[in-house]
Amino acid sequence: MPVTCYTDEKKNIRFKLDTPASTYIMQTADTDGFLLHVYYGRRLKSMETDDLGRIEQHPFLPSGNERERCSFMDCAPFEYPTHGLGDYRDDAFSVLNENGHTATSFSYLKHRVYKGKPGIKGLPATFGKEEECETLEITGEDTANGLEITLFYTVFENTDAIARHVSIKNTGRYKNIKLTKVLSSCTEFYGDEYDTIFLHGSWARERIIDRKPLGYGKHYVSSLRGESSHQEHPFITLLSKDADEDRGDVYGFNFVYSGNFIAQAEKSQFDTVRVMMGINPVDFCWNLKAGEVFETPEVISVYSHEGIGGMTRTFHDLYRNNLIRSRYRDCERPILINNWEATYFNFDTEKLISIAKQASELGIEMLVMDDGWFGHRDDDSSSLGDWTVNEEKLKGGLKYLADEINKLGMKFGIWMEPEMISPDSDLYRAHPDWAIQLPDRKAAMSRAQYVLDLSRRDVIEYTFGQISRILKSANISYLKWDMNRQLTDVGSFMLDKEEQGELFHRYCLGVYELQERLVTEFPDLLLENCSGGGARFDPGMLYYSPQIWTSDDQDPVERLKIQQGTALIYPLSTMGAHVCDCPNHSTGRTTPFATRGYVALAGTFGYELDVTRIPEEDRRMIPAQVAMYHKYNKLVRNGDYYRVASYLENREWDCWEVVSKDKTEALVTIVNVIGRVNYKARLIKLKGLNPQKKYVLKYFDMNTGDEEKNGMTLYGDALMYAGINMTGDYHGDFKGRLLHINEA
Ligand code: GLA
């Protein structure tokens, strides 16, 4: 039973949540029915523990060494810390009530346990069948504010993950309460030395792993950009000092939300650590009228005692099985060729058909027409919002083009940026008030565009109408949904002055509503989210699209770092990855065509170049790459991912491995970034194999598109404990190799 509850003779209740390898314990306290955190970590047999939470013996404080409220409040391990009553660490919950007071409290009222998992209205969330998970709801009350606060915990039976969110109900003491901070989760840790991992980045440099020791005070990442962002990521890992890829305690927290967030760890005066996550309270103020309920987005927490790799594999399994809904989740995605870096805005029907003709002969399966096909958009200064085909470029329109592409045996996809409006557009001329702006201020322009006010019903209806009309106008199999600027000047001409603090969250809800309607009305559409590269690569978007464009930087060397950081949480099947043009448009670097293919294979796989113009020797390699994708994609999509070496750490080479769930098959990719004198092989210790099984090892040959005929045969134990010399041509930089391992 994943959830057990026990009431002791003093009527205090203990709650124990068990996943296969982890246990989470809370209990109500004698004082005021406070709910206190007791334990999170490796699975325990029973719910009895020593008094870890210092509930009985608070530490000595100058204010007195008797048990008294002031010292209790500031050290008790609150499960959902409230505001203003003596806990000076950061809180999860504050309000502004009609008297102007901000304090909140949480006293246990009731709980209930049931099979399965509830959805969260209007928000993306993990899901689970009754036989897969059990949910515990603990409701507390704040009588002074007339609020009921419910903490939701869904425990997955076969995955070391717990999904958590919070709902707040105004029970009517006040007609309206302003919620100024409602975080989704808090977890307390006691007394150990920890490191943290955050993911940081920038445009074309998203989700780079940043590990450092956790010192005293608050350490956080956040976004106020209206999207999860390039710069910081809604994710935090707390890990023991000795934790590495394969060993040690690791706790990962990931926010299923695509807007403003905060992810924070705070080490207190008593060496406890409070980890919290939720909607960023800055610029957030939600009016909760009597009888209304506010629901937060959810946080996924994962525990692993098998190091960082264990955490990663749990996130991958959970997201593949219990978050992504698309029917493409379990299928090979068509190999696409996108014209963005091939032509930028400079294309027409003829050019696209010439690319498609050549691509189809080489085995590429879908042409995606990127930005620039609508309005009079010949550069990025106009036309967003005017979703009418530019017939000067696309003679015959979308339908003609799609039909011609289909005749070549290829599918056809398009790019749109539905959340935006260009000042130079008919839409803006008709509805200037549809843009997010502040009256009396000159709004900041970014990429010459504004953001549509998706808190408005009329804007949502118009936008959905446009997307739907376009998708129905031709045989369109794929949509790249882009979002190329962050929110500034956050004001709505529709919301009244009391409601302006709701705009950021309402915007996000608007995006979710649009995407929900899209996937419902067009269930066969392959949707790829994108945001100036990977600024909205988060679990919220994965609920709608099975893949997300990872980064505008497609240089395979930069991608090693970007894909390592992204795959720390997200399955390989979700990472949009293409073979790029060279010299690469972001870095100017030239890399072997084969290596570009190996790195893109670790994602969705496609091409972003003008296939009619690349060198003949590269073009000749495409059929082999296509064969490689078809041979290995199933394994890449469904397997367990292991990190063998990290270029981010060693600055020389990178290596990763994917092992099938039944351990009969594995694929190892190596990229030797910096060539090294006297190196003809790299010693690699494989992971995740069955030590008893015998395996055959065969290198893939990128020239023939086939594996070598006769491979070496070795037992799993020798491959993992003694290792293998992965041979190859490592003379020169950027050389890669692919090794396929099969049960003998
Ligand atoms: C963003 C995307 C690119 C491309 C351009 C088009 O930057 O990340 O892939 O679609 O927009 O304007």
Q: What is this structure, in a nutshell?
A:
By secondary structure, the chain is of the alpha+beta class.
For the sheet with most strands, the description reads: 10 strands, antiparallel
**What general form does the structure show?**
globular
What binds here, in terms of ligands, is: alpha-D-galactopyranose
Please give the alpha-carbon distance between the first and last residues: 39 Å
Keywords:
14 helices; single chain; alpha+beta; ten-stranded antiparallel beta sheet; 20% helix; 31% strand
Please explain how this structure is put together.
The chain has 744 residues and is an alpha+beta fold. Helices cover 20% and strands 31% of the residues. The strands form 7 sheets. Strands 6, 7, 8, 9, 11, 12, 14, 15, 19 and 20 form a 10-stranded antiparallel β-sheet that branches. Helix 7 packs parallel to helix 8. The chain is globular, with a radius of gyration of 27 Å. The two termini are 39 Å apart. Alpha-D-galactopyranose (GLA) binds at residues 340, 370-371, 415, 482, 484, 530, 532-533, 549, 552.
